Amino acid sequence: MPKVVDHEERRWEIVYALWQVIAEHGIEGVSLRHVAAAADVSMGRIQHYFGTKEALVLAGCTALVQSAHGGYQETAEAAPRERLLHVVSQQIPRDDAGRIGVSVWYAYVAKSINHSAVRQVLAEARRGAEEECVRLIQADRAGRADAARSAAGDDGDQAALEQARRLLALADGLTLRVLVGDLEPGEAVAMLESEVGRI
Question: What is the pTM of this model?
Answer without folding.
Answer: 0.86
